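INTERNAL AUDIT FORM
Audit reference: QA-55
Scope: verify that the stored structure record matches its stored sequence.
Auditor: D.O.
Record contents follow.
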Amino acid sequence: MDFKLFKEMLKRIFFVLFTAAVLACQAAPKPQPMVEGVVNVKPDEQQQLVIREVVNLIESYNYKKLEINDSISSIILDRYIKSLDQGKNYFIASDIKEFEKYRYKLDDDFKNGDLSGPFYIYNVYAKRLNEYFTYSLAQIKNKYDFNQTDSYVYDREKMPWAKSIASLNDTWKKRVKYELINLNLAGTTGPKSIETLTKRYQNLQSQTSKTNNQDVFQILMDSFTESIDPHTNYFNPVNAIAFNEDMSRSFEGIGARLQLENEVVKISEIIAGGPAFKDKQLSPGDKIIAVAQGDGEFVDVVGWRLDATVAKIKGAKGTKVRLKVIPSGKEMSSKPVIISLIRDKIVLEETSAKKKVKTITQNGKEYKMGIISLPAFYADFKAANAGDKNYKSTTRDVRKLIDSLKTFDKVDAIVMDLRGNGGGSLIEAISLTGLFIDKGPVVQVKDLRGKIEINEDEAPGVAWDGPLGVMVDRLSASASEIFAGAIQDYGRGIIMGSQTYGKGTVQSSIDLNKLVNPSMLQRIAGIITKNKTTGTAPSGAAAATAADINLGQINLTMAKFYRVAGSSTQHKGVVPDVTFPSLYPMDKIGEDTEPSALPWDVIPKSNFKSVANLTAVKPNLIKNSEQRVSNSLDFKYLKEDIAEMKKRDAETSVTLNEAKLKSERDAQETKSLARANELRTARGLPALKKGEKVTKQDAFDFIEDESLHVMGDFMQQSGSYVMNLGLGSSPKF
């Protein structure tokens, strides 16, 4: 979809709006109530600016065309409180009563750039959380009777708010007891369990104390935008970078994944092909204690937040970074090693499209199946716009895999595995569909003005003209639903799995900085330097410049998807031709579980020409599959697990009797082992012993296996169905 018109409108309108907002920022904001006992986090000027303009943006251009009013304000407050304390473990009734004064004020406050209320609420939460840590740390060394018949209520969401901190003490104490029992059952007992749990709580308390105003603002903005619709999202600067890296499947840095452990950043993984991988000096488990840019001075990063350390290590391709490292296995008192690396662009191949080949036997005949697993619809738009001929994209990757499957593997059919694929680029969904159909409409898009645009595959020819299957599940969403829906509407292939997520809305990603005149950013920088707002730059920091101002990004819902046959994918998603039991709870996951989701509707169908009418072949596919599923141990156990999960979902407490809890877990472990060995015996594999883990080689994807057998049935039954792909030849059926 072309959003140029919208963006031009935004640029013209928001230049004026942002200018007014900057001037407004010079006025003193409403005083924020202070919370004693904690370091109070406060909003900064650019956040005050962002909230005003996001309100304007939503009111002017969101598909729902709604006004941010008292009703929305009430929803935001409830969502915000729930996001901070869903289990009702920290706030007390008097806190909630006090917060009521904001119920119908947030809409007006946001329009004025006033964030004092939500930040005050967070600071109260931080105080309660600190009280929990302080109290719980004092309880760890207590002597506990693990033979009592008491229980711990871990889910208090449907209970009333506690009347006082004293009334929460019992809950907090029981949580400590429960965690000690877990450590005992895991083999960590006595003084060691006390030491382990103490360090755990101290580390959590330390990391919580590092929460900054960007973290709080992100929580608030999530509550705000999700009150509008589930997919209008604001990303603060750090999250915007992560979102765009995920979309492009690449980033610039040293090629290592990091984790925080006891205040120290450790390397958890070295990414193949990156500078760290090629240099071979860094290893998983190494601890990074200081970072230097180029030949500059080292900055100690022990005790830093993980994202702050990552930001120091990442950088532009071709630049140098030096690290002080304590090698894995050595004490922190050891002499550090200095490692110098030149940053580069790292392509995340492990999260890109992949292929594999499996052979099945169907009624005495062998079929070689090519399976292409696609985790998302990604594209490196930055590289493409820069003229990089080798930019990374879903369609380019899948085309190469198809060529390999045809030329080298000589497969009989291809199955696209879109399970867990939450979507991504609309452009890639259209072009990927074009690999399997010879030109024509792929998806219809209706914008907020009611105008319908038909997005077509305009490339002649196809990459694969043989039998095609598509695997989906409840987590397949958005672009996955566009692709699967088009394949189904065209009769181009068979859709297998469970009903998809139902995300039928279109978002436009807007970099808020690009809507602002640079001189305005400089004025904001001047205000920040002057005010030194708490929670932004530390005392004595250098003056801010326009380049330091990052307003973040908003993904704004501006349109809806419709299939070429006219039906919206919103709410209902794509219903497979052959349905399997869902691994995921359908009543917990999906667009139809979101209160703020847009409704399902239909528009006229587009002028598309179907490839084949597969209606007559589907009943036999369903019948054969249902028979196999009914005789399958895997599906039998899946159905039992679904029933068990529903039962556990209704539970809110757990026993604190160690013997009883051990007995329950032992029984579950015995049951799981017996199940696993029954399945392994059926597959000709040796039985597992207690405590022995399943190897990756032994893992069996029974849903994939059933999908391949459905494809085997499809190929045997569809010989009489001619598919007109416009290639001048018959399909390989």
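Auditor finding: record pair retrieved intact. Residues 658-682 form the longest helix (25 residues).
Action required: none
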